[in-house]
Design brief:
By secondary structure, the protein is α/β, with parallel strands linked by helices. The protein is built from 16 helices and eleven strands. Helices cover 45% and strands 14% of the residues. It binds ligand V47.
């Protein structure tokens, strides 16, 4: 029996894959066979359903005390070329300028040393006052950790205050690669692996959902990728609040790791497949098109992914690192990409409640708004 046949048997028996399986799968060259295994698991969990949402990104400041080697977005100090910090009013105006169909704002910032904590509370509360139905997926665990240290609060206090201001969930950024060897080289200034995980678990215990990521394709080994995935799986066994895993492909422009080539499309697809196979307790795997490129993201829908993220207006982190993807995709374009892949589009909100599917995808904005009101009353 071949190695892949043995894996297929394990999957059939719902047996967990282990570290050695993961490493061997990542080194596997039979890409179609690997994809077929991941697709079987994807279809067992979601059938053909493929999720997307209508969202925007908001990066209110790129001033950041951390000097992560892969980052092209941050500036160490106010006044450096390219550094910016929006006022709360300017940030809220960005949201106000977006159409009413927006259901999510994804907020990630630099670790700014000079802003008061009230800046972040006012930002969340101001967006909520403007559009109460919008879900705020905001602040990576790295930012939550920084807030606790910088403003002298516990992690729970930070989370509770942000929740009171309108925080709805945590995005998955800042995880990078958990291995200490890698963190020491590429992101030594920020919270470590155990701290990142503990913050997500604290959020889960307070009733928040969150996402998780892996930044791959730079200096990490295949073993370190698998170790990262298994640490996420172990954390999820305890608190169960991760909704979605998002592989983030390293982009090499305008940062200190420019000499590294970044992952190929085959590396991307293998990682999606292996993540789907190892992460048996995380419901969704997202092909974030703004990072992966639209074409690879669409292909990933047959390699374990069941989500394309959203319309993603105003994305900056990948654009500054050399991504050539469009500024935004319309809702109609996302639906077309999913259908062209032979999958069934489902518009979701951040927590995976269905906003529209089937004929309702073409419903009038009024009918769609009615559905959103029902969802918000139930939330
Ligand atoms: O934390 C930064 C990564 C992350 C680069 O939770 C880079 O739904 C590659 O986390 N090359 C931010 N990656 C993006 C993120 C995210 C995106 C979409 C959806 C969600 C979600 C989360 O991007 C950072 C870092 O890990 N990153 N620079 C780069 N040059």
């Amino acid at each position: 029996m071949s190695f892949l046949e043995k894996i297929a048997e394990k999957l059939e028996a719902r047996e967990r894959l282990d570290f050695a399986d993961g490493v061997r799968l990542l080194g596997e060259h039979d890409l179609p066979a690997l994809g077929a295994l991941a697709n079987r698991v994807r279809e067992r969990m979601h059938g053909d359903r493929t999720y997307f949402n209508v969202n925007m990104h908001l990066n209110a400041t790129n001033v950041c005390v951390a000097d992560c080697k892969f980052c092209s977005f941050a500036r160490l100090e106010e006044g450096m070329p390219g550094a910016y910090t929006m006022t709360v009013a300017e940030a809220i105006a960005k949201v106000a300028s977006r159409p009413a169909e927006l259901t999510e704002v994804h907020i990630v910032n630099g670790l700014h040393p000079g802003l008061p904590f009230s800046y972040y509370e006012e930002l969340l509360a101001g967006i909520k006052a403007l559009r109460p139905a919008i879900h705020l997926k905001a602040f990576t665990a790295v930012e939550i950790h920084w807030f606790a240290e910088h403003y002298g609060m516990t992690i729970d206090e930070v989370l509770r205050r942000l929740m009171a201001a309108g925080l709805g969930s945590l995005p998955g950024g800042g995880a990078e690669v958990f291995a200490e060897r890698v963190r020491n080289k590429i992101c030594r200034d920020k919270v470590g692996a155990d701290g990142w995980i503990a913050i997500h678990q604290a959020a889960h215990r307070l009733g928040l959902r969150s996402n998780c990521t892996l930044l791959y394709g730079h200096i990490e080994t295949l073993e370190e990728r698998v170790d990262h995935l298994l640490r996420l799986r172990a954390a999820q066994d305890v608190t169960g609040g991760f909704q979605t895993f998002i592989p983030l492909a390293f982009h090499n422009e305008n940062n200190a790791l420019e000499r590294l080539p970044g992952p190929t499309a085959v590396d991307d697809l293998k990682l999606f497949a292996v993540a789907r196979l190892l992460l048996d307790n995380i419901p969704h795997v997202k092909a974030y098109w703004a990072m992966l490129g639209v074409k690879t993201a669409q292909t990933a829908l047959w390699f374990g992914a069941d989500d394309l993220d959203g319309t993603v207006e105003e994305e900056k982190i990948y654009k500054m690192a050399g991504s050539r993807t469009p500024e935004a995709l319309s809702r109609g374009e996302l639906i077309r990409l999913i259908r062209a892949a032979g999958r069934t589009p489902v518009e979701r909100d951040t927590l995976y409640h269905v906003v529209a599917e089937g004929d309702a995808l073409a419903a009038s904005p009024e009918r769609r708004r009615g559905r959103l009101e029902v969802l918000n009353e139930g939330a």
